[in-house]
Design brief:
Layout lengths: L12 H28 L9 H41 L12
Length: 102
């Protein structure tokens, strides 16, 4: 089994797109709930469970938003770490041997 947290400097464009898609779909769920709940209220057998259905939709939207934000945050942190490590590799180390005092 592969552990995604083992390599913090791995920046994947696919993971960035996936995180953005999760976040966008979570926000879309929040905007869609009022319309869907209007149609669900028309079903007589579900009238007693309206609070549970509404809670479930909002919970699903919150999970999508949180998951997308977490994934984007992790990828942004990995991107920052990768660019810092790349910047350190480009720097030349100080010269050795020129430490004589005059």
């Amino acid at each position: 089994m592969m552990d995604n947290n083992s390599d913090k400097t791995n920046v994947s464009p696919f993971q960035m797109v996936w995180g953005a898609a999760l976040l966008i779909m979570g926000v879309a769920v929040f905007f869609r709930i009022p319309e869907v709940m209007g149609r669900v209220e028309e079903i007589p057998s579900l009238v007693g469970a309206m609070w549970f259905i509404r809670f479930s939709f909002y919970c699903m939207g919150a999970i999508l938003v949180a998951g997308g934000a977490k994934k984007l945050s992790a990828q942004y942190g990995a991107f920052q770490a990768a660019s810092k490590s790349k910047g350190q590799e480009d720097e030349k180390p100080p010269e050795q041997g020129n430490n004589s005092k005059q």
